[in-house]
Amino acid sequence: MNNYSIVTKDLTKRFGSFTATDAITFEVGQGEIFGFLGANGAGKTTAMRMLCGLLKPSSGEAKVAGYDIYTQTEQIKKRIGYMSQKFSLYEDLTVKENIRFYGGIYGLSNQQIKEKTHALLDRLQLEKEARQLVSSLPLGWKQKLSFSIALLHDPSIVFLDEPTGGVDPITRRQFWDLIYESADKGVTIFVTTHYMDEAEYCNRISIMVDGKIKALDTPAGLKKQFNAESMNDVFLQLARAKS
Questions:
Q1: Which of 39, 142, 150, 188 could bridge to 81 as Cys pair (CB 3.0-4.6 Å)?
Q2: ABC transporter domain spans which residues (predicted)?
């Protein structure tokens, strides 16, 4: 149990008569890049919101960073980072102001914020753009900045909800280099994506269909199981089975 960053058992969320997530069970290891795939409406976002402590489950169990999602949501929020496809930084603030603002939100000291701002700008090679409004940056740079700020407080787990939507393929690959660097440092990455080539970059993949986990394995394991050449073929087979 100590080697798992996320553990769920029969995690379920109902909205009236509609079951958004239906008794999902899985574990995510520390430092693992875990892909959470599924079509729109499959239950991915609902599951992620429960794990982030933003939505109370209807039934089932789950622990995130060792904390219970029913009773210890504040402890969970302090130990996770979050980034969505919908760019979450303030476009009317400069790059540096965004870093300082979120550093304050995360409870960092002024000295920590100063040191981390310098390190972040240097790593992303954004020193010259530090005083530019975020709105002036290309989308790919905004996403890299958003991801880096999600790591500002050294969380043990980062949730990424469609982080590379609308980004060109080259920038997407560069973004995944940042993900690999974080995972190598022991950060657990929980990522949703609809790009099947990105699914190949994950250590393991879970595929949701109508609120249920229909497949869970390594990319190689899933392709072997479904006798498929690519993850796109696996996804298409599951979609056809549904219909």
A1: 150
A2: 6-235
